[in-house]
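Can't paste images in this forum, so I'm doing it all in text. The chain is below; anyone willing to post the predicted structure tokens underneath?
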Amino acid sequence: MFDSPHFGRWLEQFENEQIEFVLLPSSPHRRIHPILRSLTLGSSRADYKFYGYIKYFGLPLWLLDKILQNSLRAWILRRAMKDVAPKVVHALEIQNAGYIALRAFRRFKPPGVRLVVTNYGSDIFWFRRFSAHEQKIRRLLSLTDLYAAECSRDVMLAREMGFTGEVAPLVPNAGGIQISKIIPAADLDTKRTTIAVKGYHGWVGRAHNVLRALEAISEEVSGYQIVFFSCNWSTIRLARRVRKSTKLDIVCFGKGRLSHDQMLRLFSQSRIYVGISESDGISTSMLEAMSQGAVPIQTGTSCAEEWLEDSGVVVKGTDTESSCEAIKKGLSMSDTSAAAKINRDTILRRATANAVAEKLEGFYE
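Text version of the structure:
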């Protein structure tokens, strides 16, 4: 996914290893993310390069393959394998890259080539419930040599769907957090007056339910600035109506409007972080909020329970009432810095860039 910061950060972890990466687009990108562009123009030990000129055609290729059922990009992948003779083909994410690899490898899998498949948040957990996707996922897993996931839940699901190959170390798909970016313990205060909310609604995101929850408990959150990030237009429109009816201090930022450093600054000023969705993996936003001292509120449809030790709120439902109760509980939990300290220690132990890099050493070997 050439426009994804997660993809860029994944590749960035290997820039000091002597590996040649040949990159093919799997999603309808309209731009190349600055991290990825920097890697391809840089002078690191690893070599990052786009295959041919197809970096310019991510959107039209995706549109054509909506009709051709991935056969065009599968043909390009087969052509690339013949030209490059890779040791490894790595499909990062299943419903685009994975299905392209499935189509390509069913026709042509060169001897000695290993297929690596990375599961992103919703790839199996959400899509396995749809019969057409389930069949494709099962076929893809039967061809997969190495399966990479963020949490044990998704490894278990892959095994249930017939995967018998090797499992990579469980690490965040976006890599670890630089120790220098993690908030100092001395700054884990309880005087914060901001609430951060993931603002996407649609497909699996449920930001509208958070807005309605805030409307229902407006008196309890009236003293906070409520910042919605990564918003789509429907969230922004509803936020305007809620702001007008309740007089709450609601601010919205569209997807990509905040830089990574600005996101970390937002979390460092936030009392709680709220992420409500029908499906997710670890949730990079949740980990980053934990690293900055914001108490996380995350739906149990993610892998949150594998990271929170009574130091956050795992929400059972995505409905408005569940969000109301979760927000109130999270605000109460953040009255002291105890939960924030536990979460910060968890990140230092499991999700720093050094900790993740150590687990990934020799990944492609």
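The longest strand covers residues 225-231. Residues 48 and 193 are 43 Å apart (CA to CA).
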